[in-house]
Write a structure and sequence with these properties.
single chain, mainly alpha, 2 domains, 3 helices, flat
Length: 111
């Protein structure tokens, strides 16, 4: 579960990083190509790219801090962490099994 969360956070950070780099490339490529009417759109794009950069940096800092805190908690309390992970796995297994049985019963009653 923690690995999935880290992977999804990593994907979000990569996507945000890609968005920022592509918007920077677009801004650089369109320098001097548009008239006054498009300058407003260009300014809004620059502002949006700047906000994205700020959000990206903040998310990256927060993700690193959270990962360090989680790692420290696991190192300080390895047995508790394993017990919690085991308990979550059991509960998740029970819920999924129950839902699967209900779905199978519902499907078999239709036929």
């Amino acid at each position: 579960m923690i690995m999935e969360t880290e992977e999804s956070a990593d994907r979000i950070l990569r996507s945000l990083r890609l968005l920022v780099s592509e918007s920077d490339e677009l801004l650089k490529a369109t320098v001097g190509e548009f008239g006054d009417k498009d300058c407003g759109a260009r300014a809004r794009l620059q502002a949006a790219a700047s906000r994205c950069k700020t959000v990206w940096r903040e998310l990256e800092k927060r993700a690193i801090a959270d990962a360090k805190a989680a790692g420290l908690a696991v190192r300080l309390h390895p047995y508790e962490s394993a017990g919690i992970a085991f308990g979550i796995g059991v509960l998740l297994g029970l819920v999924l099994t129950r839902n699967l049985r209900a779905t199978l019963r519902h499907t078999s009653s239709r036929t």
